[in-house]
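All the exercises in this workshop are built on plain-text protein records. A record pairs a protein's sequence with a compact description of its fold. Backbone structure tokens are a discrete shorthand for how the chain folds in space. Once this layout is familiar, the rest of the handout is easier to follow. As an example, a complete record with its sequence and its structure tokens follows.
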Amino acid sequence: MAKRSMYLFLAIMVLQAVFLAGIGFGFNAADLQKFNSTNKCEKCDLSNADFANLDMYGANLAGANLSGANLSGASFNDANLNDANLKGANIKGTNFAGAKLSNTIWVDGRKCKSGSMSECK
């Protein structure tokens, strides 16, 4: 009986490991570390990362993948988000004052016009 319980436990652990490995975090951990160290990360994969309530003043995230990221309450004052992908990101309460948004893919999937600043036009 104890042997059967052990096999069942091991089977559950293997299934959890396989399932969780398939989900992943989305973002590239090295890219996140690079951004945290330098405040810039062009063309980085930061999808699904949590930047809630952070001050991202002057950040350079041109071409970065921020799809599905939690950006709620964050401040992107004077940040470069040109060509970034924000599709599906949570931007509730996010401040984009002075942010460059040329050709950015907005949260709803539309592409911001070239020259967009502070808001997606």
